[in-house]
């Protein structure tokens, strides 16, 4: 289409220049007939003039040939494609590319293009055969102009036929392009691993982190002031420093086997333990490690800490052994209840 528009816009100028070159070529001077060097120089001048005449058409076609793919898919430059690969010299790989779906599609398109251009050209020549022979009887100026009209008419038909082929080819090219951009399942998995990390490695890291946190927690149990327990399920270790803390802090907590381990360490280091199931469940449910206890449990924990101080004083000074507190005031809704086995 670009070529047709260029011929239509510059056809008169090109025809005039070609007419002048043909007229000069048909004038044979006596010196040219006897001097081969002058004949070669004249031929060179004629060819140079013809090339300069066609240069605008070639330049516009070059711009269209480069611009059309850029408009369709964007400008992509890759130096990798310029590299030399020995695999390209492998005839088996070449045969595979030739007989692939893409290769067969390109071959089919080439055959359709050749059939369209050849068919349109043959049709024009057959329909204009009488007119083309009549050009020989016309004056040169008229014949050249008439011939230029025939060329443009033929180019219009060829462009229209190739345009019809492009209407079929462009959607196929876009579909094939986006299809190639799709990733396989393995590529998706690999990309996920690269972006999110290997799930196995992440699981291992989390396991190590949990183990390190558990070790730090267990190391804090000997320094606790008291361990509040539910005999079969929970253990929560509390520590309180009146100079540094506004309220007691949970330094360790566990359920099941971890609760048993906390009790074992507390017993080994002579940390006081108090059996208070509702309070133990409430502390385990509503407190995180290194967090102060909630205000709703201040009263119950205060009784526990008072008992611990009295117990420590009795152990160091003797006297009357303090009574272990019972029915600690745990607000309704704080105790989640006895868990299922």
TrEMBL record:
Gene3D superfamilies, sorted: 6.10.250.2080, secretion proteins EscU
InterPro entries: FlhB, T3SS_substrate_exporter, T3SS_substrate_exporter_C
Any single GO CC term annotated in Swiss-Prot or TrEMBL for this entry: plasma membrane
Annotated spans, Disordered: 320-341
Localization (cell): Cell membrane
Protein's GO biological process: bacterial-type flagellum assembly; protein secretion
Membrane topology of the entry: Multi-pass membrane protein
Domain of life of the organism encoding this protein: Bacteria
Transmembrane segments: 48-77, 107-127, 147-172
Key words, A-Z: Bacterial flagellum biogenesis, Bacterial flagellum protein export, Cell membrane, Cell projection, Cilium, Flagellum, Membrane, Protein transport, Transmembrane, Transmembrane helix, Transport
SUPFAM superfamilies associated with the record: EscU C-terminal domain-like
Functional note: Required for formation of the rod structure in the basal body of the flagellar apparatus. Together with FliI and FliH, may constitute the export apparatus of flagellin.
Family: Belongs to the type III secretion exporter family.
Name of the protein this chain belongs to: Flagellar biosynthetic protein FlhB
Species of provenance: Azoarcus indigens
Gene that encodes the chain: flhB
